[in-house]
Amino acid sequence: MAEYATPLIALVGTIFGGVGLKITERWLNRAKEKNDTAKEIRDELRTDMATYRQEILNLKAEVDKVEKEVTEWQDKYYELRDRYSKLNALYEDALRQIQNKASETVAQARDAGIQVNLSDKETT
User: Fold this and answer.
1) How far apart, in whole angstroms, are the C-alpha atoms of residue 27 and residue 20?
2) Separation between Cα atoms, residue 97 and residue 110, nearest integer Å
3) 20 vs 13, 14, 15, 16, 23, CA distance in Å?
């Protein structure tokens, strides 16, 4: 039995050595896989960040464009408002002049003895 003990011990030692080597290899590979996974995640995040940066730049450009359009529309609005104010002032001035002229004409007609009926817009 002693002659079988040495090869048996060698066989058991080889098996346990191989199993131990595989366990150690897996343990080391697990750490490597964790590092690889972490690297993949970091790379993916870098790619995402680059994409988001570009999207932000595009959105900033669009915001600048829209702000420019808003400024143009504001300028147009203020220009039209000023034109309206000027035309309205001219209209009111012309209306006052017409009313004054009409009042003067009615006063002259009354002074001349002409009866004026403003409700019918006829002179007698």
Assistant:
1) 10
2) 20
3) 10, 10, 8, 6, 5
> pTM, whole model, 2 decimals?
0.50
The length of the chain is: 124
In tens digits, the chain (124 residues) has pLDDT values of: 567 777 777 777 788 777 777 888 887 777 778 788 889 999 999 999 999 999 999 999 999 999 999 999 999 999 999 999 999 999 999 999 999 998 888 888 888 888 877 664 544 4
The answer for residues whose C-beta is within 8 angstroms of residue 124's C-beta and 6 or more apart is 114, 115, 116, 117
**C-alpha to C-alpha distance for 33 and 28, rounded to whole angstroms:** 9
